[in-house]
Write a structure and sequence with these properties.
49 residues
Length: 49
C-alpha cells in the first residue's frame, strides 16, 4: 500500500521525531531559493538559531 492509500483508508501511523525549527526553515528556504533563482527572484531570510 502507498502512503496515500493508508490516508484514504483513514489509518496513518505517526511517530514523534525531534527536530529544530531552524533546520526545517533552512530546508524550506533552500527549496524555494532553487526555483526563485531560476526566475531571478531574490529571497532574503534571517532566522536566529
Amino acid at each position: 500500500d502507498s502512503d496515500l492509500d493508508t490516508i484514504i483508508d483513514g489509518y496513518l501511523d505517526l511517530e514523534m521525531v525531534e527536530f529544530t525549527l531552524h533546520e526545517v526553515l533552512l530546508a524550506s528556504v533552500s527549496q524555494v531559493m532553487i526555483k526563485s533563482n531560476a526566475k531571478s527572484i531574490q529571497i532574503v531570510h534571517d532566522a536566529a538559531e
